[in-house]
Specification:
It is a single chain. The relative contact order is 0.18. By secondary structure, this protein is an alpha+beta fold. Helix 2 crosses helix 3. Strand 1 and strand 2 form a beta hairpin. The chain has a single domain (4-133), classed as Sufe protein. Chain: A. It is 52% helix and 13% strand. InterPro entries: Fe-S_metab-assoc_dom. This is SufE family protein. Belongs to the SufE family.
Amino acid sequence: MRSLSDIYEEYEFLEGDERYRLLIELGRTLDPMPDALKTDATLVRGCSASVWVYPTESEGRLHFLADSNAAITKGIVALVIAAVQDKPAREIAAMDVTAALEPFDLRNQLSSNRTQGVPNMIALVCEHAARLANA
């Protein structure tokens, strides 16, 4: 997965539909999430589309599997995941993911329906990280 800064370098030069296409492409780069992991326990609440996030841990780093049934929403979750992917749980738990995503100005770039679940996606990722960091 590309780093958040690499994604932003491309994103800042795009406009409107081009930004949507970039988000859709980001969603396609997510690791496949097995259907067996798409459960009520991994479902992100408050999203207009269905979004699932599942953390795995290896060598002290968190790797997230995620999926959505909507292409642009899947791209948004990919953006959230790009901010935290393969980082130590303690680092993620201490990180301000919202601030890391602020340069993308998602609230003004996307409809409110598409962005309403972003805080819940971030909260779920950070909750997983905090739980594992304190384990």
